[in-house]
Amino acid sequence: MSLPATERANLLGLARPALEGFVAQLGSRPFRARQLMNWIYKRGTSEFTEMTDLARDFRARLAAQAEVRPPEIVRVQRSADGTIKWLLRADAAQAFEMVFIPEPDRGTLCISSQVGCALDCSFCSTAQQGFNRNLTTAEIVGQVWLAMHELGREAAPAGAQAPGEAAAPLERRVTNVVLMGMGEPLANFRNVVPALDILLDDFGCDLSRRRVTLSTSGLVPQIYKLAEVSNVALAVSLHAPDDALRNELVPINRKHPIAELLPACWHYLDEQNGRSVTFEYVMLDAVNDSPAQARALARLLKGHPAKVNLIPFNPFPGTRYTRSPAPVIQRFRDELLQRGVLATVRRTRGEDIDAACGQLAGRVIDRTTVRLGNKVIGVAVQP
Ligand code: SAH
């Protein structure tokens, strides 16, 4: 029996054990799941008819009851520096974004875990739209599948360079994935964890654990939970060296203050035999960027397996913050380095297409206002 498209199982949402169960349910042997994953992730196939080493009747049952369906692309934008941003459909009205950042030594895909975000960090543009919904496992993995597919299709000639860049050629494949797009991944734990499993699975995207990074605003209980089930690299949005300021910038700090957050990070490393935690620190002019604050940050992290990644603030309409001047960022970094704390400054990419950190916004695709009696309601329409 053929199921309507909406009821078919999207195989991009099934990690290997679940896929084995599904395959068994269709009357096939569980090891077929590995063959299936090989077609889906290694060969990038979404058509069951092309999976020629699977029995014909099994393929027919798959075609009737399953699908490989990545998110639908609403719009693609390309930056002069080679960065690409995709706007992807969540439903008729809402969209979410993913960004590919090519560099000479790596191609990083920044993916979303939620449409909107509930955490309300004061300097983040996603926060302004509020929380809409969690992305499914299939939508999270589907972003990576889709980017690999789209980049593969572009077949850029070897040695392609970003315009205006005379340096080394840029990596055009997805070699790294960061959960640093829209949303708080640990607030969508149930869907994110199987997605991580698929990204790391040898038969899935086959990425090494050090090339997949989950970034969290600091949901302490979920960091402990994550330590039990995953071993991806951890990044934590610290942004302030003390609770008073962090309460203001990252409000979840009121629930889980720095003194609870840092031990959770060290626990994660111990459990997962990780090398270090990356602490993200957005550079906000005259808010968190003084040398005294750098010294306070160094006192917190010194002697621990920590790296600090300083992110020049990316402004967006309506924000009250501005970016720290470059010399202030350098001074901040030097204060950390002098105290033995590793620190780097993140190079801003894709600014001309609003693809930089904190600029991702799930736009409403289109809205028409309709008057119903004395009530005005927004109705989504297809573009
Ligand atoms: N919710 C997760 C992941 C998403 S944000 C988290 O908080 O870590 C990825 C990173 O971009 C976070 O460190 C976030 O604080 C930072 N960020 C958000 N808005 C920014 C902005 N306007 N400029 C620079 N970095 C920003």
What does this entry look like structurally?
- By secondary structure, the protein is of the alpha/beta class.
- It has 11 helices and 16 strands.
- It is globular.
- The two termini are 33 Å apart.
Features:
383 residues, alpha/beta, 10-stranded mixed sheet, two-stranded parallel ribbon, disordered C terminus, binds S-adenosyl-L-homocysteine
Q: Give a short account of the largest sheet.
A: 10 strands, mixed
Bound molecules: S-adenosyl-L-homocysteine
Q: Which stretches of 5+ consecutive residues score pLDDT under 50?
A: 366-383
Please, what is the average pLDDT? 90
What is the first-to-last residue Cα distance?
33 Å
General form: globular
Report strand order across the widest sheet: 3-4-5-6-9-10-11-12-13-14
| Helix-and-strand structural type | alpha/beta
Q: Report the total helices.
A: 11
Order of helices and strands: EHHHEEEEEEHEHEHEHEHHEHEHEEE
Rg of Cα set: 22 Å
Give a brief description.
The protein is α/β, with parallel strands linked by helices and 383 residues long. 32% of the residues lie in helices and 21% in strands.
SSE map:
Blueprint: E1 9-10, H1 16-25, H2 32-42, H3 56-65, E2 66-67, E3 73-78, E4 84-89, E5 95-102, E6 107-110, E7 114-116, H4 125-128, E8 131-134, H5 137-154, E9 176-179, H6 189-200, E10 212-216, H7 220-229, E11 233-237, H8 243-249, H9 258-272, E12 277-283, H10 291-301, E13 306-312, H11 326-338, E14 342-345, E15 367-372, E16 375-380
Parallel strand pairs: 1-2, 6-9, 9-10, 10-11, 11-12, 12-13, 13-14
Antiparallel strand pairs: 3-4, 4-5, 5-6, 7-8, 15-16
Helix pairs in contact: 1-2, 5-6, 7-9, 10-11
The protein binds S-adenosyl-L-homocysteine.
